[in-house]
Fold this sequence. Notes:
The chain is of the alpha+beta class. Helices cover 42% and strands 16% of the residues. The protein has three helices and three strands, in the order ββαβαα. α1 (34-54) links the parallel β2 (20-27) and β3 (58-65).
Amino acid sequence: xxxxxxxxxxxxxxxxxxxxxxxxxxxxxxxxxxxxxxxxxxxxxxxxxxxxxxxxxxxxxxxxxxxxxxxxxxxxxxxxxxxxxxxxxxxxxxxxxxxxxxxxxxxxxxxxxxxxxxxxxxxxxxxx
Length: 128
């Protein structure tokens, strides 16, 4: 409806009435590689944004990062604020995002020598 592509950003939010689209992409790099990962993602989706803009829509790329060891980058705080999540809710969500990333990274580390992924492994519980 907007532009045919094989690119698949993590989240797409659009408005038909104002012809605006937000391409939102999460990256979970090692903390020391956040800036490099950001630049790679920007390069990856820049062509898509240019093509969408040429089709009479206004495309904006929004990148946010949560480090593999749980560091929540400023870009994530900024995105949550743009989405209207503020104060304690934003702090709690950032804490959860960091915990999820760290737990998932740890599970991947524990499974690094296994040829198959244990689908029954519990990464998070309801009290996390």
